[in-house]
UniProtKB/TrEMBL annotation:
<dbReference type="Pfam" id="PF13277">
    <property type="entry name" value="YmdB"/>
</dbReference>
<dbReference type="InterPro" id="IPR029052">
    <property type="entry name" value="Metallo-depent_PP-like"/>
</dbReference>
<dbReference type="InterPro" id="IPR005235">
    <property type="entry name" value="YmdB-like"/>
</dbReference>
<protein>
    <submittedName>
        <fullName>YmdB family metallophosphoesterase</fullName>
    </submittedName>
</protein>
């Protein structure tokens, strides 16, 4: 199976780039299932329903959120209806939406998408390890599901690496989101789980993690409130990861994707 996961969509330029690139990537890489992290799509803060609809229409099978899940209040009734939009599984019980989605492909193969959020330097949510264990309790990679993909939305590299190692062999891939900076540690762990600390953002990298530089710099240098942060709007780089699995659901390879914009260009070999 071939899996595509695109990182945090940042503002208008990120949305436009993903909507334009996703059909091409699905076609050229023969993608079976595509996932997009959309929590920063609306001016860097949250996701609006019409934006989610556009990403789904472009070819996303699922969209994940994160710490900005509820910044756009109109997403609350939307997430109750659109099961392919998921938020972190370790939000407390009673939080709207679900932390995972089970997708059945046209050929009958099943793929489980899960999102968990870290707790180091993040909101103090429930334990992401226990939350993910609960989401996987009725699954068995290669038996009940042909692929299991986990989006770990977190700040600390150590927490991401520990999480991936904890679920090595139980998931096809554990992919980090949130920091907006693509890491160079993509690898297949000993148990067959593909891992990358952060798959990067889809946005303008002539920025401070996707935000216009001047207001962001002012916050560091003046240490007082100032102009509201807003996304940079230059040409975006579409960043993500490509994973290929074997019939058991274990990863054969993981390769980064970087196309357009300022970063060095990388496309998987097919």
């Amino acid at each position: 199976m071939r899996i595509l996961f695109l990182g945090d969509v940042m503002g208008r330029t990120g949305r436009d780039s993903v909507v334009a690139a996703l059909p091409k990537l699905r076609r050229e890489l023969a993608i079976d299932v595509a996932v997009v992290n959309g929590e920063n799509a609306s001016h860097g803060f949250g996701l609006a329903p019409d934006m989610a609809d556009a990403i789904f229409a472009a070819g996303a099978d699922a969209i994940t959120l994160g710490n900005h899940s509820w910044d756009r209040k109109e997403i609350i009734p939307y997430i109750a209806q659109q099961k392919r939009l998921i938020r972190p599984v370790n939000f407390p019980p009673g939080t709207p939406g679900e932390g995972s989605v089970d997708i059945t492909l046209a050929d009958g193969r099943r793929v489980l998408i899960v999102q968990a959020m870290g707790r180091l330097f993040m909101d103090p949510l429930d334990c992401p390890f226990r939350g993910t264990e609960a989401a996987l309790v009725r699954t068995r990679l290669g038996v009940t599901h042909q692929a299991i993909v986990i989006d770990f939305h977190g700040e600390a590299t150590s927490e991401k690496m520990a999480f991936a190692s904890a679920f090595d062999g139980a998931a096809s891939a554990v992919l980090g989101t949130h920091t907006h900076c693509p890491s160079a540690d993509h690898q297949v762990l000993p148990g067959g789980t593909a891992f990358m600390s952060d798959i990067g953002m889809c946005g303008d990298y002539d920025s401070v993690i996707g935000m216009a530089k001047a207001p962001a710099i002012a916050r560091f240098t003046r240490k007082m409130p100032g102009e509201r942060l807003h996304p940079a709007e230059g040409e975006a780089t579409v960043c993500g990861a490509f994973i290929e699995t074997d019939p058991t659901g274990r990863a054969l390879r993981i390769e980064p994707i970087r196309m357009g914009g300022r970063l060095s260009q990388v496309m998987p070999s097919v």
